[in-house]
Specification:
Elements lengths: L10 E6 L2 E6 L5 E5 L4 H17 L7 H20 L20 H4 L10 E9 L9 E13 L2 E14 L2 E16 L2 E17 L17 E17 L2 E8 L5 E4 L3 E4 L3 E8 L1 E2 L5 E11 L4 E13 L2 E10 L3 E10 L2 E10 L9 E10 L18
Helix pairs in contact: 1-2
Length: 381
Amino acid sequence: MSANEGKVTPLIVGFRKNFLTLCADSTQVCACVPTSCTVNDTLNILRRTFSRALLHPERGGAGKACVALARLTAVLVVVLATAGLQVARAQQDPAFLRYWALGTQFNPAAVGLNPQLTVNAVYQSHASGFEDAGGTMFAGADMAFRLGKTRHGVGLLFEQDEIGLFSTQRFSVQYAYQFKLFGGVLSVGAELDMLSEKVDGANADLEDSSDPAFPTSEVTGSKFDASAGLWYARGPWYAAFSALHVTAPTILLGETNEMDVKTLYNFTAGYNIRTRNPLFTIVPSTMLRYDGTDLRADVTARLVYARENKRMYGGLNYSPQHSVGLFVGGMFHGIDISYSYEAFTEGIGMLNGQHEVMIVYRLDLNLDKRGKNLHRSVRFL
């Protein structure tokens, strides 16, 4: 690939033989992406591959061609992400590999399912091996309490997702009401969110800084949002459904840009299978995420060893046409520590996957004066 002298001007987008072609009319630099890839996967590949050249063009080993293609990436990403187009990001919310331990991240009905005070902290790195690939941080706390004969749950969470020039934050207050139904427990949850978006245009190296499609400084915006969910547990199994961003807000970024936030629908279910050895449990589970356009499915199998107050577990996660993942962890004295690696089966490759570290702390509060819990959570077995 090579680049001619001059400005990288209008972006040309074309389709030919099942490939999306991206190039600038003043260069010979082009990028071809199979149309079978989702928009989200395409953006992830472009952003992660060329984020280093975009932010630090003087370091680019591929010279002007790399810089030119990085600027094409800037055109595509900035325009799609800030122009309010529905295809900006196929699924905007982060997807953690160990969703089964982070129910409150995607469903407010999960707060208070565990009778203990539960505090979660997770960090997920993006595209290992690339500079400025960013990462996702999640922190949350929830607890159960009684009011008379009724049982409730409350929680707080903070989430920050960063990649390249982009940063998304979510702060949420959660509430759930729980009651017995058909021999199990149904939890009905609601959530009030504050969403914040930021594009750091000041760090983008663009030759034509006068183009109104590009923010030349840091632009931010925020909007209130709401989410809701249901969680039903009976004996060894559970099933749950939630809708994040039910208001589908439009966040204004500066005076000329905006971003549409799409509603994300989530479904999860799991079952605890007892083995002949009482110390071991097999826990299959699944997670479906759908935003009206793109569907991501995860299937997980865990083997759990539990003895007295100690527990160890490991397992495998598979997401068709997306990734495979391995995880291992254990709980000692109320602290659960685990690690996972998610390898992409398409796009940037299996060696440039995502590392994830999670710490969960649980504390008995004894707020239930009746001395017994309404139910036992099957998420944490």
